[in-house]
Protein backbone atom coordinates (compact mmCIF):
# COMPACT_ATOMS: atom_id res chain seq x y z
CA UNK A 1 0.00 0.00 0.00
CA UNK A 2 2.25 2.76 -1.33
CA UNK A 3 2.81 4.73 -4.53
CA UNK A 4 5.30 2.35 -6.14
CA UNK A 5 2.76 0.72 -8.49
CA UNK A 6 0.49 3.62 -9.35
CA UNK A 7 3.49 5.88 -10.05
CA UNK A 8 4.34 3.57 -12.97
CA UNK A 9 0.81 2.98 -14.23
CA UNK A 10 0.04 4.62 -17.56
CA UNK A 11 -3.38 5.70 -18.73
CA UNK A 12 -6.18 7.21 -16.63
CA UNK A 13 -6.65 5.58 -13.22
CA UNK A 14 -8.62 8.28 -11.38
CA UNK A 15 -11.54 9.59 -13.41
CA UNK A 16 -13.55 12.53 -12.08
CA UNK A 17 -16.94 13.57 -13.44
CA UNK A 18 -18.53 16.52 -11.67
CA UNK A 19 -22.19 17.51 -11.45
CA UNK A 20 -21.76 20.37 -13.95
CA UNK A 21 -20.08 18.19 -16.57
CA UNK A 22 -16.62 18.96 -15.20
CA UNK A 23 -14.24 16.20 -16.16
CA UNK A 24 -10.69 15.22 -15.31
CA UNK A 25 -8.73 12.05 -16.06
CA UNK A 26 -5.62 11.54 -13.93
CA UNK A 27 -2.91 9.04 -14.83
CA UNK A 28 -1.14 6.99 -12.18
CA UNK A 29 1.97 9.22 -12.10
CA UNK A 30 -0.20 12.34 -11.83
CA UNK A 31 -2.17 10.87 -8.90
CA UNK A 32 1.14 10.01 -7.24
CA UNK A 33 2.36 13.57 -7.79
CA UNK A 34 -0.76 15.05 -6.16
CA UNK A 35 -0.41 12.73 -3.17
CA UNK A 36 3.21 13.79 -2.73
CA UNK A 37 2.22 17.45 -2.99
CA UNK A 38 -0.36 16.82 -0.28
CA UNK A 39 2.34 15.31 1.94
CA UNK A 40 4.29 18.54 1.47
CA UNK A 41 1.31 20.76 2.23
CA UNK A 42 0.15 18.90 5.33
CA UNK A 43 3.76 18.40 6.36
CA UNK A 44 3.94 22.14 7.02
CA UNK A 45 1.21 21.55 9.62
CA UNK A 46 3.11 18.76 11.43
CA UNK A 47 1.74 15.79 9.52
CA UNK A 48 2.47 12.70 11.61
CA UNK A 49 0.94 10.50 14.33
CA UNK A 50 -0.55 13.51 16.16
CA UNK A 51 -2.11 15.00 13.01
CA UNK A 52 -5.84 14.43 12.44
CA UNK A 53 -7.57 15.45 9.21
CA UNK A 54 -11.36 15.60 9.48
CA UNK A 55 -13.24 15.25 6.19
CA UNK A 56 -17.04 15.51 6.52
CA UNK A 57 -17.46 14.95 2.75
CA UNK A 58 -20.72 16.92 2.52
CA UNK A 59 -21.10 16.44 -1.23
CA UNK A 60 -19.65 12.98 -1.84
CA UNK A 61 -16.00 12.07 -2.39
CA UNK A 62 -14.09 14.50 -4.64
CA UNK A 63 -10.76 13.58 -6.24
CA UNK A 64 -9.02 16.33 -4.25
CA UNK A 65 -10.37 14.82 -1.04
CA UNK A 66 -9.18 11.37 -2.07
CA UNK A 67 -5.59 12.42 -2.78
CA UNK A 68 -5.56 14.37 0.51
CA UNK A 69 -6.76 11.28 2.39
CA UNK A 70 -4.00 9.23 0.77
CA UNK A 71 -1.39 11.88 1.61
CA UNK A 72 -2.25 11.71 5.31
CA UNK A 73 -2.60 7.93 5.51
CA UNK A 74 0.62 7.18 3.64
CA UNK A 75 2.56 9.66 5.78
CA UNK A 76 1.35 8.29 9.11
CA UNK A 77 -1.41 10.71 10.06
CA UNK A 78 -5.03 10.09 10.99
CA UNK A 79 -8.08 10.64 8.79
CA UNK A 80 -11.59 10.89 10.22
CA UNK A 81 -14.49 10.71 7.77
CA UNK A 82 -17.74 11.36 9.60
CA UNK A 83 -20.57 13.81 10.16
CA UNK A 84 -19.29 14.86 13.58
CA UNK A 85 -15.88 16.37 14.26
CA UNK A 86 -13.35 14.51 16.45
CA UNK A 87 -13.10 15.40 20.14
CA UNK A 88 -9.34 15.97 19.95
CA UNK A 89 -7.49 18.69 18.01
CA UNK A 90 -7.97 18.41 14.27
CA UNK A 91 -7.55 20.02 10.86
CA UNK A 92 -10.47 20.00 8.43
CA UNK A 93 -10.82 19.62 4.67
CA UNK A 94 -13.99 20.89 2.97
CA UNK A 95 -15.16 22.06 -0.45
CA UNK A 96 -15.69 25.76 -1.06
CA UNK A 97 -18.97 26.92 0.47
CA UNK A 98 -18.63 24.69 3.55
CA UNK A 99 -15.77 26.46 5.29
CA UNK A 100 -18.17 28.09 7.77
CA UNK A 101 -20.06 24.90 8.62
CA UNK A 102 -20.53 24.23 12.33
CA UNK A 103 -18.76 20.88 11.97
CA UNK A 104 -15.42 22.56 11.28
CA UNK A 105 -15.75 25.62 13.51
CA UNK A 106 -13.32 24.17 16.09
CA UNK A 107 -10.66 23.10 13.59
CA UNK A 108 -7.11 24.36 14.09
CA UNK A 109 -6.96 24.98 10.34
CA UNK A 110 -9.56 24.62 7.60
CA UNK A 111 -8.28 23.55 4.18
CA UNK A 112 -10.75 24.59 1.48
CA UNK A 113 -10.69 23.35 -2.12
CA UNK A 114 -12.59 24.66 -5.12
CA UNK A 115 -14.35 21.67 -6.77
CA UNK A 116 -14.40 22.67 -10.49
CA UNK A 117 -11.84 20.66 -12.44
CA UNK A 118 -9.81 23.60 -13.74
CA UNK A 119 -10.01 25.89 -10.69
CA UNK A 120 -6.51 27.14 -9.80
CA UNK A 121 -7.55 28.91 -6.61
CA UNK A 122 -10.29 29.08 -4.00
CA UNK A 123 -11.88 32.48 -3.18
CA UNK A 124 -11.49 32.32 0.61
CA UNK A 125 -9.98 34.84 3.01
CA UNK A 126 -6.79 34.49 5.01
CA UNK A 127 -8.53 32.58 7.82
CA UNK A 128 -8.60 29.51 5.57
CA UNK A 129 -6.05 27.59 3.50
CA UNK A 130 -6.73 27.79 -0.25
CA UNK A 131 -5.84 24.21 -1.22
CA UNK A 132 -6.01 24.70 -5.00
CA UNK A 133 -3.43 27.46 -4.89
CA UNK A 134 -1.26 26.33 -1.97
CA UNK A 135 -0.72 22.71 -2.97
CA UNK A 136 0.77 23.58 -6.36
CA UNK A 137 3.82 25.06 -4.64
CA UNK A 138 4.97 21.66 -3.34
CA UNK A 139 7.18 19.17 -5.21
CA UNK A 140 5.91 16.07 -6.99
CA UNK A 141 8.23 13.90 -4.88
CA UNK A 142 7.74 13.55 -1.13
CA UNK A 143 10.69 14.56 1.02
CA UNK A 144 9.95 11.75 3.48
CA UNK A 145 9.51 8.00 3.39
CA UNK A 146 5.84 7.03 3.12
CA UNK A 147 5.18 4.00 5.31
CA UNK A 148 1.36 3.70 5.09
CA UNK A 149 1.10 3.74 8.88
CA UNK A 150 -1.84 6.15 9.06
CA UNK A 151 -5.16 5.50 10.78
CA UNK A 152 -8.45 5.67 8.88
CA UNK A 153 -11.68 6.11 10.81
CA UNK A 154 -14.99 6.13 8.93
CA UNK A 155 -18.30 6.75 10.73
CA UNK A 156 -16.74 5.79 14.07
CA UNK A 157 -15.12 2.59 12.74
CA UNK A 158 -11.35 2.16 12.56
CA UNK A 159 -10.71 0.64 9.14
CA UNK A 160 -7.87 -1.81 8.44
CA UNK A 161 -7.27 -0.05 5.14
CA UNK A 162 -3.99 -1.81 4.35
CA UNK A 163 -5.53 -5.27 4.53
CA UNK A 164 -5.28 -7.03 1.19
CA UNK A 165 -7.95 -9.49 0.15
CA UNK A 166 -5.93 -10.66 -2.81
CA UNK A 167 -2.41 -12.01 -3.25
CA UNK A 168 -2.55 -11.38 -7.00
CA UNK A 169 0.18 -8.90 -7.92
CA UNK A 170 -1.34 -8.00 -11.28
CA UNK A 171 -3.14 -4.75 -11.96
CA UNK A 172 -6.75 -4.85 -10.69
CA UNK A 173 -9.18 -5.38 -13.53
CA UNK A 174 -12.28 -3.37 -14.32
CA UNK A 175 -13.59 -0.02 -13.25
CA UNK A 176 -14.70 0.74 -9.70
CA UNK A 177 -17.39 3.42 -9.79
CA UNK A 178 -18.53 5.57 -6.88
CA UNK A 179 -21.52 7.91 -7.02
CA UNK A 180 -21.11 8.83 -3.33
CA UNK A 181 -18.65 8.36 -0.49
CA UNK A 182 -17.60 4.67 -0.14
CA UNK A 183 -19.16 2.90 2.83
CA UNK A 184 -16.84 2.05 5.78
CA UNK A 185 -16.22 -1.57 4.77
CA UNK A 186 -15.51 -0.61 1.16
CA UNK A 187 -12.43 1.53 1.82
CA UNK A 188 -9.80 -1.27 1.87
CA UNK A 189 -10.92 -2.59 -1.51
CA UNK A 190 -11.26 0.94 -2.86
CA UNK A 191 -7.77 2.10 -1.85
CA UNK A 192 -6.19 -1.23 -2.85
CA UNK A 193 -7.80 -1.02 -6.29
CA UNK A 194 -6.54 2.52 -6.90
CA UNK A 195 -3.02 2.08 -5.49
CA UNK A 196 -2.75 -1.16 -7.47
CA UNK A 197 -3.25 0.81 -10.68
CA UNK A 198 -6.93 -0.04 -11.17
CA UNK A 199 -9.36 2.44 -12.65
CA UNK A 200 -11.68 4.40 -10.35
CA UNK A 201 -14.56 6.64 -11.38
CA UNK A 202 -15.60 9.29 -8.87
CA UNK A 203 -18.74 11.29 -9.40
CA UNK A 204 -21.54 12.75 -7.33
CA UNK A 205 -25.02 14.15 -7.70
CA UNK A 206 -25.33 12.54 -11.11
CA UNK A 207 -28.60 11.12 -12.39
CA UNK A 208 -29.18 7.56 -13.62
CA UNK A 209 -29.09 8.45 -17.30
CA UNK A 210 -25.65 10.02 -17.06
CA UNK A 211 -24.32 7.12 -14.99
CA UNK A 212 -25.39 4.79 -17.80
CA UNK A 213 -23.64 6.97 -20.37
CA UNK A 214 -20.47 7.14 -18.28
CA UNK A 215 -20.34 3.38 -17.81
CA UNK A 216 -20.88 2.80 -21.52
CA UNK A 217 -18.10 5.21 -22.42
CA UNK A 218 -15.53 4.08 -19.85
CA UNK A 219 -15.86 0.32 -20.13
CA UNK A 220 -16.97 -2.56 -17.97
CA UNK A 221 -17.87 -1.58 -14.41
CA UNK A 222 -16.27 -4.12 -12.10
CA UNK A 223 -18.08 -2.87 -9.01
CA UNK A 224 -19.78 0.06 -7.38
CA UNK A 225 -19.12 1.82 -4.09
CA UNK A 226 -21.20 3.81 -1.69
CA UNK A 227 -24.90 4.44 -1.84
CA UNK A 228 -25.66 3.88 -5.50
CA UNK A 229 -28.51 5.44 -7.43
CA UNK A 230 -31.03 2.89 -8.61
Topology:
Elements: E1 12-17, E2 23-27, H1 28-43, E3 52-54, H2 63-74, E4 78-81, E5 91-95, E6 110-113, E7 129-130, H3 131-134, E8 151-154, E9 157-159, E10 175-178, H4 187-195, E11 199-203, H5 208-218, E12 221-225
Parallel strand pairs: 1-11, 3-4, 3-5, 4-8, 5-6, 6-7, 10-11, 10-12
Antiparallel strand pairs: 1-2, 8-9
By CATH, the topology is Rossmann fold
Give the strand tally: 12
Could you estimate the helical fraction of the residues in percent?
A: 10-25%
CATH architecture: 3-Layer(aba) Sandwich
Structural domain tally: 1
Computed Rg: 16 Å
Largest sheet: 7 strands, mixed
| Gross morphology | globular
Q: Which structural class should the secondary elements be placed in?
A: alpha/beta
Strand order of the largest sheet: 7-6-5-3-4-8-9
**What is the terminal separation in angstroms?**
32 Å
Low-confidence stretches: none
Name of the CATH homologous superfamily: ANL, N-terminal domain
Q: Could you report the average pLDDT, rounded to the nearest whole number? A: 90
Give me the number of helical elements: 5
Walk me through this protein's architecture:
The structure is a single chain. With 230 residues, this protein is α/β, with parallel strands linked by helices. The protein has a single domain, classed as ANL, N-terminal domain (Rossmann fold, 3-Layer(aba) Sandwich), CATH 3.40.50.12780. Helices cover 23% and strands 22% of the residues.
Amino acid sequence: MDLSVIARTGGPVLIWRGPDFDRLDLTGPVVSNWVNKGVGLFGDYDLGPEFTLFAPLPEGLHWRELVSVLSVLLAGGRVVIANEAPDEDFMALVPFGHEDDDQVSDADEVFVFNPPALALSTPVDADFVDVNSAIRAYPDVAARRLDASGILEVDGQVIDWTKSESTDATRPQGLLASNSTPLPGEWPRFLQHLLGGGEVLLTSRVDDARITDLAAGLGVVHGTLGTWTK
